[in-house]
């Protein structure tokens, strides 16, 4: 699918919390009319890659509807293609759906569970005179199919007798015919304006082992045939899928009607989720992984659920995002900044505050007693005071951010500079007296004096300071590596490029190895997300070890979406 380039103002804005959408309206009316008495949906991933944020939208929709209507939602692996599927993917999909907060209970299925039934349905179609074995080559089939403007031509094999078709299909099944030598096709209408209805393939020959059925089958059903019948076998009522399947719906219905299936499921299409600055097709994501543009499917820059989890995104925030963007009938691109806004909103409430200095320079308080260590009480989360406080060691020598000092401050710079007084967060006011530089002119020490009457960061005489700096004691800290991410792609819509790889952002990852972090993080757990005061949200990476802490920057604090929303 290609998406036309959108301008900033055309990017989708979040809707009001929508309790209803066109899919829920269909369900409501089906329940009201008595057409359905219960609701059954499914999430049907093909296990040929990791799930991405687009899948999260589909998961939230399918499982969310089941939850809302007291119905059921099945997890079904669409494993009809033996060549591309992998157990690693099956396991990652299960983990991701659970992590998002959904439960298929005992309803985990595979399309391959139905291979025998699907085969019997195919035989039934042959017996009804509605399917035939075609021996045209793939090229010939394409040629006979016609185009959007020209009708197709009937295959010379179209009028084979039922007996001959049954015998040939049996040979296909037994593995007596080589790959590509024959296909079973539905006999519909080679002149249909809908190309999907021009005698589509039902079964193809593949002498390939399948990850679940092994060497049992030499023929595999096509998606359109397997999908509607799998839905029907499972008693699905509403088969919710993305818009590219709209044009397949007549075929979905044709199979169910021709096979006279009872209570046929109804296919309903919605617009897939697209996000700016990323790609969402599994084929493209796989290419990023195999060509080494990222470090695996769970690279924190990937739009995969696994990548987002590792980055520090939360399931609650992703669910909220999916709810806010709503369900629509028309394709659009959602602004990545809106997803990030949802993540920040959630982390702001949840993340413990910690002090860390990423680009350290020494600050020395000349009038502070040598050897003294004070325990400063710092609030864990100002948004949630029930989270309490923690003790942070304060000493004569500290680290502050190099960017928080300017020898010759520009207009509007309210942080530290010679002669200026600032607050050290939760500790004291300090005033810069002088600095020391090395022979290259680089500042190595910033000397200050402190006011002992400003303990806790407030002055008793009501004196105000404009700047508040975070700090870490230079004798009480842990070192950490910080991985800082930017958008994986530098352009708004990489899928619109001839080669999406050209859109990659060369600065999407930078590594900081000099960060100093307060000691309270010594026991940090992998996956824990904290807010480094004034810097952003950071999540402990799985690559951390007992003697090396590694953080992923989840997001910086600056929220461009919230800022834009305020302006409007
Ligand atoms: P891709 O195009 O990314 O390779 P797919 O559609 O082939 O994805 P499936 O594993 O077949 O991937 O998808 C499982 C379900 O998730 C399908 O019902 C599909 O419609 C839905 N889905 C896939 N991508 C998106 C998306 N971007 N937004 C919403 N739903 C999606
Ligand atoms: Mg698919």
Give an overview in words.
The protein is an alpha/beta fold and 568 residues long. The protein is 26% helix and 24% strand. The chain has a seven-stranded mixed sheet, covered by helices on one side. Strands 21-18-19-20-14-17-22 form a seven-stranded mixed sheet, with no helix packed on it. It has a four-stranded antiparallel sheet with strand order 4-5-6-7. β25 and β26 form a beta hairpin. The longest helix has 16 residues. The structure holds adenosine-5'-triphosphate (ATP) and magnesium ion (MG).
Topology:
Blueprint: H1 22-33, E1 40-43, H2 53-68, E2 72-77, H3 87-99, E3 108-110, H4 115-127, E4 131-134, H5 138-145, H6 162-174, E5 183-186, E6 201-205, E7 219-221, H7 223-233, E8 238-242, H8 249-258, E9 266-270, E10 273-275, H9 282-290, H10 305-311, H11 315-325, E11 332-334, H12 336-350, E12 352-354, E13 356-357, E14 360-365, E15 374-379, E16 389-394, E17 397-401, E18 421-424, E19 429-437, E20 443-451, E21 468-469, E22 472-473, E23 477-485, E24 509-518, E25 529-532, E26 536-540, E27 549-556, H13 560-567
Parallel strand pairs: 1-2, 2-3, 8-9, 10-11, 12-25, 14-20, 18-21, 23-27
Antiparallel strand pairs: 4-5, 5-6, 6-7, 13-24, 14-17, 15-16, 17-22, 18-19, 19-20, 23-24, 25-26, 26-27
Helix pairs in contact: 2-11, 7-8, 11-12
This protein binds adenosine-5'-triphosphate and magnesium ion (MG).
Residues 44-46, 54-55, 57-58, 241-242, 272-273, 280-283 line the site of adenosine-5'-triphosphate.
Poorly predicted segments = 1-10, 13-18
Give the rounded overall mean pLDDT. 94
Shape: elongated
Radius of gyration: 31 Å
Main sheet characteristics:
7 strands, mixed
Q: What separation lies between the terminal Cα atoms?
A: 32 Å
* H/I helix tally: 13
Strand order of the largest sheet: 12-25-26-27-23-24-13
Number of strands: 27
Structural class: alpha/beta
What ions, cofactors and ligands are bound?
adenosine-5'-triphosphate, magnesium ion
Strand content: 15-25%
What percentage of residues falls in helices of 4 or more residues?
Answer: 25-40%
């Amino acid at each position: 699918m290609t998406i036309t380039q959108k301008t900033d103002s055309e990017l989708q804005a979040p809707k009001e919390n929508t309790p209803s959408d066109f899919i829920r309206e269909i369900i409501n009316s089906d329940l009201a009319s008595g057409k359905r008495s219960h609701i059954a949906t499914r999430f049907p991933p093909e296990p040929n890659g990791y799930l991405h944020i687009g899948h999260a939208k589909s998961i939230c929709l399918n499982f969310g509807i089941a939850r809302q209507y007291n119905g059921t939602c099945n997890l079904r692996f669409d494993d009809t293609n033996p060549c591309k599927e992998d157990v690693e993917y099956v396991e990652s999909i299960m983990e991701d759906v659970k992590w998002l907060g959904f439960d298929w209970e005992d309803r985990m299925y595979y399309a391959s569970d139905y291979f025998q039934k699907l085969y019997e349905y195919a035989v039934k179609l042959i017996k009804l005179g509605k399917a035939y074995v075609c021996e045209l080559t793939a090229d010939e089939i394409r040629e006979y199919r016609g185009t959007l403007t020209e009708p197709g031509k009937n295959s010379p094999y179209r009028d084979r007798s039922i007996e001959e078709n049954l015998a040939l299909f049996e040979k296909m099944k037994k593995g007596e015919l080589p790959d590509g030598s024959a296909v079973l096709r539905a006999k519909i209408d080679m002149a249909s304006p809908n190309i999907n209805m021009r005698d589509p393939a039902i079964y193809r020959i593949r002498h390939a082992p399948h990850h679940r059925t092994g060497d049992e089958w030499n023929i595999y059903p096509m998606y359109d045939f397997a999908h509607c019948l799998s839905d029907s076998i499972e008693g699905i009522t509403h088969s919710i899928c993305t818009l590219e399947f709209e044009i397949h719906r007549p075929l979905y219905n044709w199979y169910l009607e021709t096979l006279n299936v009872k209570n046929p499921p109804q296919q309903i299409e919605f617009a897939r989720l697209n996000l700016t600055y990323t790609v969402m097709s599994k084929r493209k994501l796989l290419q990023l992984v195999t060509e080494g543009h990222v470090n695996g499917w769970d690279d924190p820059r990937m739009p995969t659920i696994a990548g987002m989890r590792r980055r520090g995104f939360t399931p609650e925030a992703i669910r909220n995002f999916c709810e806010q963007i709503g369900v629509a009938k028309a394709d659009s691109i959602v602004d990545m900044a809106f997803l990030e806004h949802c993540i920040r909103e959630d982390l702001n409430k949840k993340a413990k505050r910690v002090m860390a200095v990423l680009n350290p320079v020494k600050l020395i308080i000349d009038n502070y007693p040598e050897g003294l260590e004070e325990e400063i009480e710092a609030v864990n989360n100002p948004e949630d005071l029930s989270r309490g406080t923690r003790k942070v060691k304060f000493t004569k020598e500290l680290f502050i951010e190099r960017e928080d000092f300017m020898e010759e401050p520009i207009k509007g710079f309210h942080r530290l500079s010679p002669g200026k007084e600032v607050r050290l967060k939760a500790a004291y006011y300090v005033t810069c007296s002088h600095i020391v530089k090395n022979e290259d002119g680089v500042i190595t020490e910033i000397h200050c004096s402190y006011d002992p009457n400003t303990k806790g960061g407030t002055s008793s005489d009501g004196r105000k300071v404009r700047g508040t700096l975070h700090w870490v004691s230079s004798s009480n800290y842990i070192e950490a590596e910080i991985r800082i991410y930017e958008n994986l792609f530098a352009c708004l819509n990489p899928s619109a490029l001839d080669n999406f790889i050209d859109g990659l952002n060369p600065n999407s990852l930078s590594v900081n190895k000099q960060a100093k972090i307060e000691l309270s993080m010594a026991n940090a757990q992998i996956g824990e997300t904290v807010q480094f005061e004034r810097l952003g949200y950071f999540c402990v990476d799985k690559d951390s070890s007992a003697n090396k802490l590694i953080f992923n920057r989840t997001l910086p604090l600056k929220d461009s979406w919230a800022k834009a929303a305020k302006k409007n």
